[in-house]
Design brief:
The chain is of the alpha+beta class and about 270 residues long. The chain has a single domain, classed as Jelly Rolls, CATH 2.60.120. Helix content is about 15%, strand content about 35%. The chain is built from 4 helices and 15 strands. It has a 5-stranded mixed β-sheet with strand order 1-4-12-9-14, with no helix packed on it. A 5-stranded mixed β-sheet has the order 3-2-10-11-7, with helices on one face. Strand 10 and strand 11 form a beta hairpin. About 40% of the residues are buried.
Length: about 270
């Protein structure tokens, strides 16, 4: 198997002492990142995760690639097939985590093509290093989707949030996703940041530079693979609690390579 490790630039937050504000974009041709913060590009080695032995896991590195043949032919027709797809990925996540139950609560379509975004109202790739949730916002998302009594019961036990990321077109050549080995992440690298959307205000984590970070990606991911990324875990027993991640410009992508078309789905995972 060829090794597709690459040197590439990733965008890190420059801490200034001010609280960053991330403005969630609206889908469409002009969708673009807007963040009230300062960033710096750092050149890093991004290793080919397909060569990891043993393979990466949710509890060690915070991410894992799994084979997953989907029945869905057209992800842009999501309302019609949403129930089928959510059943598919619920089964996938439960098998991967050993959890007792799961709840899919969000889907986001993305593309690095202006034309594709315009045609399907999808969003841009998230090309700054981040994690989707702080401890506080992870608990808030749980409370958003459960009754008060259900939430209190669930919070007595371990819960997690897992992002299921996949290509919805051909192999991903442009703007692939890089994930950082959670064991190389220092909590001091994380900066809680406000996330402002159309319908709610939440929190995510941006990330400052640390030369200890080890980065990985899965070259040419296809439609029948799913990348699971742990974005929160309530347990504090030494296993990975989060994996920071970002899209990046792939220097191995040839001019004229197909645009990235992807979908990520967020899943609340319950262990009690």
């Amino acid at each position: 198997m060829p090794n597709f490790a690459v040197l590439a630039h990733l965008r890190y937050l420059v801490p200034t002492g001010e609280r960053p504000v991330y403005f969630a974009s609206r889908g469409g041709a002009d969708a673009a990142l807007k963040i009230g913060a300062e960033f710096e590009d750092r050149e890093v080695m991004i290793q080919d995760a397909r060569h990891l032995q043993p393979p990466a896991s949710l509890d060690r590195q915070g991410f894992a690639l799994l084979p997953h043949v989907t029945q869905i032919e057209d992800f842009y027709d999501l309302p019609r097939v949403q129930g089928v797809y959510e059943a598919e990925i619920t089964g996938l996540v439960l098998a991967a985590t050993g959890a007792s139950s799961a709840l899919v609560f969000d889907h986001t379509l993305r593309s690095d093509s202006r034309d594709v975004r315009g045609a399907h109202a999808s969003r841009e790739p998230a090309s700054v290093i981040h994690n989707d949730y702080t401890d506080a916002s992870a608990e808030k998302r749980l409370r958003d989707f459960l009754t008060a009594a259900e939430a209190e019961e669930r919070l007595r036990y371990r819960f997690a949030i897992v992002n299921v990321w996949r290509s919805i077109a051909g192999p991903v050549l442009n703007s692939p996703l890089a994930c950082c080995d959670a064991a190389t992440l220092d909590p001091a690298d994380l900066v809680a940041s406000e996330r402002r959307g159309e319908d709610r205000v939440g929190e995510l984590e941006l990330v400052s530079w640390n030369p200890s970070h080890r980065w990985y990606y899965y070259p040419e991911m296809n439609r029948n693979e799913a990348l699971l990324i742990k974005t929160f875990d309530s347990v504090r027993d030494g296993r990975a609690r989060r994996s920071i991640h970002t899209a990046f410009a792939n220097p191995l992508a040839l001019d004229g390579s197909p645009a990235r078309e992807s979908m990520e789905s967020r899943v609340l995972v319950f262990f009690g």
